[in-house]
Amino acid sequence: MTTTEKPASLISTLPGHYYTDPQVFALEQAHVFEDMWFCVVRSGDLPTPGSFKKVQVGRESVLVVRSRDGGLRAFLNVCRHRGAQICTEDSGAVKRAFQCPYHAWTYDLEGKLIAAPNLTKMPDIDRVEYGLVPVHLREWLGYAWVCLAKEPPSFEDDVVGAIGERLGDVESIDRWELDSLTVGRRITYDVKANWKLIIENFMECYHCATIHPELTEVLPEFADGYAAQFFVGHGAEFGEEVQGFTVDGTEGFDKLPGVAEDQDRRYYAITVRPTVFVNLVPDHVIFHRMFPVAEDRTIVECDWLYSRDVVESGRDVSRSVELFHRVNEQDFAACERTQPAMSSRAYANGGVLVPSEHHIGAFHEWLTQRLSG
């Protein structure tokens, strides 16, 4: 096959095997998911001491728990005795401790080994040294972020900085007060596609006029195909006749108290590498967390966050949920249509990006640099 130089309008994508090769996915687990700050759980989902959630981060099962002092802690979900998983349930609550179901080694909420059969006959065992292996954890925007790296990268640079870079300053995100919002709806999607296809889809709007009729009705500039949401500080403006960020453009809820007037009637989208999307509109926030589980499968957990008053009053959030739920279903269906072609000989050398997609090339460069390091 002969190759020709591409016109300036087109740049190359990643080759197809980046989306299908288990060895590439293993490298991503080691150098991306396990080496970076990874958003795992909404803090409010763990309300009381002993509340826990088991999450998969790269190749590791991680246990996130509310400790007795009220803070969150994270540990590898592995008993130090023979390696059994401490928690097999995805979530739940214990009263005072976690007990391994294999040999009954027992750990308190701070990870310390506190009991085991015949432990008193083994006085040389250091109960801290043989406690659960801790994982770095930070809370921000009402979520717990963990990092498995021995020396984690700067949270301020990689996570906080990503939002500041998009909005123009870090303080802007504070106006939505995400940590005080409440989950009004959560939908989990099981997407039969590589996680990078989902990232790339979110980063461009070339497809918006084709598959997102409801979204482009609310945000007319998206019909032009340019990902205006990635311009620093820019929020896509609602259409003139649109009253709210709802499936039919009708009125939503009152603007969140901290949102500035110049941010009203606008939509802001933010990507935080590797697997978080934050979508800001005046009256709520849509927060996506992705959990890549295989080279061709990704679990996406999406939270719709509203003021506590809206949720506790029982007000109907279905019209605002329905808008982005349709967007999600449309996007994920497109990614699932794309995944089979990643192993086609037609895509062996990859595809191309048109000018409105060229910024995806920076994501590809970032990824290949991480994998080669």
Automatic annotation (TrEMBL):
PROSITE patterns in the record: RIESKE
Superkingdom of the source species: Bacteria
Gene3D superfamilies for this protein: Naphthalene 1,2-dioxygenase Alpha Subunit, Chain A, domain 1 (3.90.380.10), Rieske [2Fe-2S] iron-sulphur domain (2.102.10.10)
SUPFAM superfamilies: Bet v1-like, ISP domain
One Pfam short name: Rieske
A molecular-function term among this protein's GO annotations: 2 iron, 2 sulfur cluster binding
Keywords: 2Fe-2S, Iron, Iron-sulfur, Metal-binding, Oxidoreductase
Cofactor: Fe cation
Domain (Rieske): residue spans on this chain: 37-146
InterPro entries attached to this UniProt entry: Rieske_2Fe-2S, Rieske_2Fe-2S_sf, Ring_hydroxy_dOase_asu_C_dom, Rng_hydr_dOase-A
Protein name: Rieske 2Fe-2S family protein
Organism the protein comes from: Geodermatophilus tzadiensis
